[in-house]
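idk why but the lab printer keeps eating my pages so im just putting this in chat instead. protein + adenosine-5'-diphosphate:
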Amino acid sequence: EVIVEVRNLKKHFEMSNGFLKKTKTTVRAVDGLNFKVYEGETLGIVGESGCGKSTTGQLLLGLMEATEGEIYFRSTDLASMNKEALRKARKDLQVIFQDPYSSLNPRMTVGELIGEPLVVHGIMRGKALRERVIELMQLVGLREHQYDRFPHEFSGGQRQRIGIARALALNPKVIVCDEAVSALDVSIQAQILNLLNRLQKELDLTYVFIAHGLPAVRHISDRIGVMYLGKMVELAGRDELFNNPLHPY
Ligand code: ADP
Ligand code: ADP
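predcted complex ->
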C-alpha cells in the first residue's frame, strides 16, 4: 500500500547575485521528482552532496512549500490540507537528523527533549508524560536513570538514540532519516541501523532513509533511489541495484 507519493515535485530557490542583487539565479534543488513510498518499507535515497536529498526530506515532512508538484500522504496532497489536517499529518511524519547534538537544545534534559513533542501537542503532562518518556527511552536502549542528564553527557550513538526516541514520541507512521548515521563510527552505525530495523518491525514504521554514502543504505533499504541534480535518475530494488555489474555504485 502506498503511504507517500510524490508527483512532479520541484523546489527552486531564487538566489540574488552579489550585493547589488540585480540579477537572480535559480537553484533547482529538486527538479521533477516522481516516486512512491510503500507502507512498511525503507526507501533509501542516495546521491552526492547538493543533489537535493535534504530538500526532498524537508518537503516530505511538510516543512517547506514546493514550487511545483504534489506530495500525497495517504492519498491527500499536503498542499491541499487545512491547518488541522496538516498538523495531524506532521505528527505522522517525523525526522531523525544527522547530528542530534546540533539539533537538540543543550539546555534540556533527555527526558524533556523526548517529551517535548507530547507537551507541544498538548497530549500529555505530569506523571503520564514521565512514564511515556521512560517507555520511549527503554524502547531505544536508554536507561531510566539517564532521564535528567543533558545531551552533552552522551556519546554520538547515545545522542542518536535520544533523537530517535523523540521522533517516536507521537507514534509516527513515516520517519525521514536524514543522514541519520553518517556522523557515527562504523560500529555505532551498525548498532543504530539494527535499532532502526527492530523499531520498524515493532512499530510498523516506514522509512525514507537519506544518505550520501551507500553502505548504510545498502544495509537497511528495500529499494534505493539515486538522485542527481534534483532528479531521481534511478529507482530499483536493493539487490537489483547492487547486483548489476555495470552499475557505478
Ligand atoms: P543534499 O541534501 O543532497 O546535499 P540539498 O537538498 O541540501 O542537497 O541542496 C540541494 C541544492 O539546493 C544545493 O545546491 C543547495 O545549496 C541548495 N539549497 C538547499 N537549501 C537551500 C536554501 N534554503 N536556499 C538556497 N539554496 C538552497
Ligand atoms: P546537507 O549536509 O544535508 O547536504 P547542508 O549542510 O548543505 O545539508 O545544508 C544545511 C541546511 O542549509 C539545509 O537546511 C539546507 O536547506 C540549507 N542550505 C543549503 N544550501 C543553502 C544555501 N545555498 N542557501 C541557504 N540555505 C542553504
